Known about the structure:
3 strands
Amino acid sequence: MPDLNKIIEDLSSLTVAEAAELSKQLEEKWGVTPMAAAAPAAAGAAPAEDKDDFTIMLVSAGEKKINVIKEVRAATSLGLKEAKDLVEGAPKEVKTGVNKKEAEEIKAKLEAAGAKVELK
C-alpha cells in the first residue's frame, strides 16, 4: 500500500497550475470531476419555485422613506428607531424564513411605499 502521508505531502507542494493539470488528468483517466465544480451545478439545478423560505431584502428606501419605515414596522415587530435604522442602512434583510405568499405581499407593500425590494 502506498504511503498516504507521502502522497498528501506531494499534493500539498503542487502549484496551482500543476494541481489544475492533475485534476484534468484524473478527469480524463477516471471520468471524475472535482466536487467543487459539481456542487454548484447541483445546487443551482433546483428551480426557484421549489423554494419555500424567502428572505426579503430592502435594496433601497427610495424617495418616501417615512412610508417605507411604516411598512417595515408593519411587516416586522421592530420599533420606530429600529425600523428607521434598517431602512437607512439599506441594503438590509427585512425578514427571513418567509413563505412565498407572505414574501410577495410584503414586497408589494414595500414597493408601493416607494422602496426597491428583492426576494432571495
